[in-house]
Amino acid sequence: MLKGNTVLLGVTGSIAAYKMADCARELTKLHADVHVLMTRNATQFINPITFETLTQHKCLIDTFDRNFQYSVEHVALAKSADIFLVAPASANVIGKIAGGIADDMLTTTVMACTCKKLIAPAMNHNMLHNPIVLDNIQKLEDFGYGIIRPIRGMLANGDIGDGKLPDVQTLIDYIVQELACEKDMAGLKVLVTAGATREAIDPVRYITNRSTGKMGIALARAASMRGAEVTLVAGSCTEKMPPFVKVVNVTSADDMFEAVTQSADDYDIIIKAAAVADYTPVDCAENKLKKSDSDLSIPLKRTKDILKHLGEHKRSGQLLCGFSMETENLIENSHKKLISKNCDMICANSLKTEGAGFGTDTNVITIITQNGTVALEKMSKLDAAHRILDELVNNL
Length: 396
Prior knowledge:
Blueprint: E1 6-11, H1 19-29, E2 33-38, H2 48-55, H3 74-80, E3 83-89, H4 91-98, H5 105-112, E4 116-121, H6 125-128, H7 131-142, E5 146-147, E6 151-154, E7 160-164, H8 168-179, E8 189-194, E9 199-200, E10 206-207, H9 214-225, E11 229-234, E12 246-249, H10 253-261, E13 269-272, E14 279-281, E15 300-302, H11 306-312, E16 319-326, H12 330-340, E17 345-350, E18 362-363, E19 366-369, E20 372-375, E21 379-380, H13 381-394
Helix pairs in contact: 1-2, 1-8, 3-5, 4-7, 9-13
């Protein structure tokens, strides 16, 4: 995912420095070329050999160290960098960078870098809330540095407070968000629905389906990685919500209908990937919980057709994409849906196809538009999401 990208990690004197070994390892797994720079204080918390073993590069500490190739001096390294993450960033180093002080290898390289720079503060609660530190963080943000906010939790001294470095996956997410994709969807607003709705029968039981939300979540993540401003309307999902996406949680089909339709005109692309329950009880308040439900008879009504409503009210220039899951006549039935719902695209898949359907990490999709069909081979849902977005972007 990060192949061909050079990532610089700046590690400063904080107990959280130990987390950066995992960060370096995960970045190398993503095929990034990782270089680590440490302050001398950081070496008191973690040995540079750890990073050298993980990255296969010398860990740089001393600006005047001559025991490495000349081409890896700070200016050359700064030129090659695609992103520079300083984590954990101590109050001392934050103050230096904000004040333009470059007195060691880390701060000198930060000053020489023209790439995107991320700062992840980590320190004692009271230090973090010191007005001077807050002012320095704000100053860096004003200069265009990305700030990864510390979280609240148990700190090194046992206190509960602000100042804890976020988990490694969060740090990785920021780097992936910046580097993994071209930002060909920058400036676009995208709405995605995902997951299953739940229609209450009584205080315990409900009507739903097998949707896990994986495909919709993959679409939201992919659009965000490509620079779009994304809103995800999520029903019941088994997957973690994607980062850098606005999430609106809903339960029932009516909830989802309201969440989607009330602001539909604001979006350039709408993708309905959620599997809405087809029926809902007429009045679940009348259904009493019984010891035996063998004779339970519940009057049902169809839920609102979200995709049809969106198609009927589609504004000029807006693209609407729906999903069609079939067990037979895949192309014929899906093309009928394309026309009847006034969609620009239908993504069709069959429950009978290996590697497609609910709960899998892969999908086998046929993209159907007025211009024809494109059959995709089995691939991960994230890769499939990017292929779907490729087709949508090409039709804008």
